[in-house]
Amino acid sequence: MDEMNKRLKMNSREKNILAGTPLMAALGKPALQHMTEIATVVHFEARDILAREGDPAEYFYCVLTGYVRLFRLSRDGREADIRICGPGETFGECLLYLGPAYRYHIQAAETVTVARFELSKLRKLADEDRDIARFIMQSMAAHLVNIMDCVANDRLQTAPQRLAHYLLTSCPQNSTSASIRLPFQKSLLAGKLGLAPEALSRAFSSLKRAGVTVRGRLILINDVGALRQI
Amino acid sequence: MDEMNKRLKMNSREKNILAGTPLMAALGKPALQHMTEIATVVHFEARDILAREGDPAEYFYCVLTGYVRLFRLSRDGREADIRICGPGETFGECLLYLGPAYRYHIQAAETVTVARFELSKLRKLADEDRDIARFIMQSMAAHLVNIMDCVANDRLQTAPQRLAHYLLTSCPQNSTSASIRLPFQKSLLAGKLGLAPEALSRAFSSLKRAGVTVRGRLILINDVGALRQI
DNA sequence: CGGTGACTTGACTACTCTCAATTTCGGTGG
DNA sequence: CCACCGAAATTGAGAGTAGTCAAGTCACCG
Known about the structure:
By secondary structure, chain A is α+β, with helices and mostly antiparallel strands.
């Protein structure tokens, strides 16, 4: 299926998205130039598989539009999401200096465009360009602390607490009330929080008493402070 | 309490331990030399706190002997282990290019000696020495895949499965039976697996039927293959 | 307006946590 | 060498949380 997607050099809109990602923004002009030179843009439809666990690791990715799921399969076919990557987020850094294979399945959660960088080329770039090496380090470090939070939250918090925590991180700071539009399907959010979709549903309804209203993807939060108490 | 522990330059035994860690072993002589020059050896007793979540991040660590716990506290005082670090393992890499504070509590699980590296000095070393930068990248990448496994396992596996998985990783490869000596207390293993001590106990007793015998810290595994089926 | 897929709700089950009571283990001192 | 102490580990009972399955409802899109 890979071959069926157009592979293109980046157009200017895509370059802008790439340059706008928080971590790449720290790159200087020349480093950014080098990165875009080895980038290829690829398009996928919902549910397309970008790679399987165990496949030889070829690419480092940056999501341009849409959301991508990294997940693991158990022997009995259940899925566990490890990370959900949105626009501007990268994954696959850890493969640069590590094992020869992907450690997880990669799937498009919806229509997505991604920028793709051959690991071998990127490895060479990182060796030559200190800025790029530093960029990779920073994004790995960021992923590391994120996923450490994830482990701690999984182990300490109940479903409503995890949801409340997610909603709070989506709120603008210092607001007493807020309205949020979920950027993806609820089933994807459920996976991100380590829950079955039904459990997410029940978590939402248990947050009603804390002044949280749900209408489709639109979430209304009356009292941000009350949410913090959960 | 920090000030009560002797701070010493490394002796040769400690240098050997440090040089023997899998990742540092990849360092060349000069790089290793630079690392030992900025290292300080510190000693802690069981339950000593090396740092608290939120403390300004000063050091990168390498455990020389004993085990160290990285954990998070919930508001109601429950603890969740994020990682258990044994001899030769490092932690704190992610703070090199990131936030100004520790993201977790650090505690000695028993009597430990650690080598400590000031982040600012190490940052400078990494900037100057490509080998050291690469060493840091590799260990971050290794931690990243480890903790991704941890998230997936937490979400996919039951307590007996997690325990079986741990025992299997402690077995020598390709053996049909094995005897393992746990390197630390069971309560620490419980935390590592994201379980309450009681749950670990029950997991052990549920593995009896798979031919696992427990005598103190000594674990006997009759049939490694049977354990894999769990 | 109809239909498909996403979401919600309910009933039930499985798993793990908590609390409390023993038992075992490991080390210390007599 | 043995007795004893305290910490660690085990076991039991009970409660809470989330997963599964099934049925029903809602939302979005043609």
